[in-house]
């Protein structure tokens, strides 16, 4: 059930030279909700998520996380505060096993320093490593990838690699997880599985979700609220059914043209 505001974008604009990727975009996400951003290709969806994650710094405006201004914080600091993300293009370490890829996601939670980690047989560091491995094994079980846990990530099917990337983002145990087209390139069965995992992360694990997704069936099914971007501007925001009934949205996103009623003729 949505609660207090966890993330707020305040009049965010982003320019690349003379090109405006975002213009005065404002929105707020409540803790505990699934908030989706939709729009046609080039609308600014990934640019907005990149501003939230810290990959891009807005030209104007602010990003607030739990009331704290994080606009100028590096990605590592944002991760430590509880922001996790997946990418539109897979960013796994192909030569590393699934288990090791997911362990990378625990990096910001590890307290042992470099020297202590090198001599991991010391009690404290060893206990910490075991605790992190237990967390990772729980995530592996949750995402049903036990059968590939020791396989190199680069050898997996595309759908499984997307699931491993989600696992790595979840390993941070983020308060807010940013999902950039998590169902892209998947078949129907894989999409259904991924939608189920996202819902469980939200409802059972208590993670707030900010998602970019093109599959409108998925967006309608699992989102609490939806925001629509077009040419870098927010053109609508609200409940999924309200947004999709908006004529402006249907023209921008679905390419629909309003029909002009034909004049009645005398019979």
TrEMBL record:
Q: Is Transport set as a keyword in this record?
A: yes
Kindly indicate whether the keyword Transport belongs to this entry. Answer: yes
> This chain belongs to which protein, by name?
ABC transporter ATP-binding protein
Entry superkingdom: Bacteria
Pfam families xref list: ABC_tran, BCA_ABC_TP_C
The record, for CDD domains, names: ABC_Mj1267_LivG_branched (cd03219)
Q: Which Gene3D superfamilies match?
A: P-loop containing nucleotide triphosphate hydrolases
List residues of the ABC transporter domain.
7-256
InterPro entries the record matches: AAA+_ATPase, ABC_AA/LPS_Transport, ABC_transporter-like_ATP-bd, BCA_ABC_TP_C, P-loop_NTPase
Going by the UniProt record, its keywords in alphabetical order are: ATP-binding, Nucleotide-binding, Transport
What is a single molecular function from GO for this protein? Answer: ATP binding
């Amino acid at each position: 059930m949505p609660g207090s505001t966890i993330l707020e974008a305040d009049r965010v604009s982003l320019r690349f030279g003379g090109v405006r990727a975002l213009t005065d975009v404002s929105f707020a996400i409540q803790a505990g909700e699934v908030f989706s951003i939709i729009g046609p290709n080039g609308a600014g969806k990934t640019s907005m998520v990149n501003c939230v994650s810290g990959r891009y710094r807005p030209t104007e405006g602010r990003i607030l996380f739990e009331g704290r201004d994080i606009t100028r914080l590096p990605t590592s600091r944002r991760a430590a505060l509880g922001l996790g993300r997946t990418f539109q293009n897979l960013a796994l370490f192909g030569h590393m096993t699934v288990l090791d890829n997911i362990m990378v996601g625990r990096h910001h939670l590890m307290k042992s320093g470099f020297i202590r980690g090198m001599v991991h047989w010391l009690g404290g560091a060893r206990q910490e490593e075991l605790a992190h491995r237990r967390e990772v094994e729980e995530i592996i079980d949750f995402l049903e990838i036990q059968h590939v846990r020791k396989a190199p990530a680069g050898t997996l099917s595309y759908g499984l690699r997307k699931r491993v990337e989600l696992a790595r983002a979840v390993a941070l145990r983020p308060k807010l997880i940013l999902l950039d087209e998590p169902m892209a390139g998947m078949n129907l069965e894989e999409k259904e599985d991924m939608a189920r995992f996202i819902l469980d992360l939200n409802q059972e694990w208590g993670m707030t979700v900010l998602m970019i997704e093109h599959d409108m069936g998925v967006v309608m099914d699992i989102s609490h609220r939806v925001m629509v971007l077009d040419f870098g501007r927010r053109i609508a925001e609200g409940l999924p059914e309200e947004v999709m009934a908006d004529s402006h949205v249907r023209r921008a996103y679905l390419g629909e043209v309003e029909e002009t009623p034909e004049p009645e003729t005398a019979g």
